[in-house]
Fold this sequence. Notes:
about 140 residues, alpha/beta, Rossmann fold
Amino acid sequence: MRLVVDSNVLMRFFWQKSATRSLLLKTGLDQLSVEFALQEIEKHRERICQQTRISRQEFKEVKNELTTVVRFVPLGDYREFLRKAGQVSPDPEDVDFFALAMKIQAPLWSDEGRLKSQQAVRVCSTNDLLSDPEFLNLIYPDDG
């Protein structure tokens, strides 16, 4: 399953015991995000370190780990969908995520409820994913 992951979800990766982190670390998922999300995470580094009680070095290590489980896509790969995404996205700050989701025809994983107010891109919250049997089967396959 392919998912486009937005910044609010990516930032929760820094919480060591979060359900979001556990889901992002599961195999069987093709997780993508926009490249500038890494800059956004870096912009909030101090707040993330303070809230998660990790050092700057630990932040750097976790951020590096994040880049191994999420593929960060450059703007040039989805640029042609920006205009259409701008007409659809309820939040101008999320246009790039919508454009990438449109480009690869995948759901957007976001916990911003207002993003569900449009019909062009399927938006799934963490709770939606955790209650979806098909999704859970992908990350917790039967052993038998």
